[in-house]
Amino acid sequence: MAKQGEPIITVRDLHKWYGDFHVLRGINVQVAVGEVVVICGPSGSGKSTFIRTINRLEEHERGDIIVDGIHLTNDVRNIATIRSEIGMVFQSFNLFPHLTVLQNITLAPLWVRKRPRREAEKVAQELLERVKIPEQAHKYPGQLSGGQQQRVAIARALAMQPKVMLFDEPTSALDPEMIKEVLDVMRELARSGLTMLVVTHEMGFAREVADRIIFFDKGEIVEENTPDGFFNAPKTDRAKQFLANILAH
Amino acid sequence: MTSIPASAVTRPPVERGALAWLKKNLFRTPFDSAMTIIVLGIGVLLLAQFFQWAITQAQWTVITTNFRILLQGTYPADQGGRLGLSVALITLIAGISWGIWGKLFRATVFAFVGGVLIFIIVPAAAEGLSDAPQGTLSAYLSGQLAPLFSLLREPVMLLVGCLLIGYAVGRLGKRLNRKRAGRYTLIGWLVLIPIVFFLVRGFTDADGILPFVQTNRWGGLLLTFMLAFVAIVACFPLGILLALGRMSGGSHTLEFKAPPRWWLNPLQWLHALSIWWRNLGNYPIIKLLCIVYIEFLRGVPLVTVFFTANLIVPLALGDNNIDAVLRAMVALTLFEAAYIAEIVRGGLQALPPGQLEAAKALGLSPVQATLFITLPQALRIAIPTLVGQFITMFKDTSLVAIISLTDLLGISRSVLAQNEFIGRHREIYVFVAIVYFVFSYGMSYAARQLERSGSGAVRKLG
Question: Domains along chain B?
Answer without folding.
Answer: 76-212 (no CATH), 223-248+283-456 (1.10.3720.10)
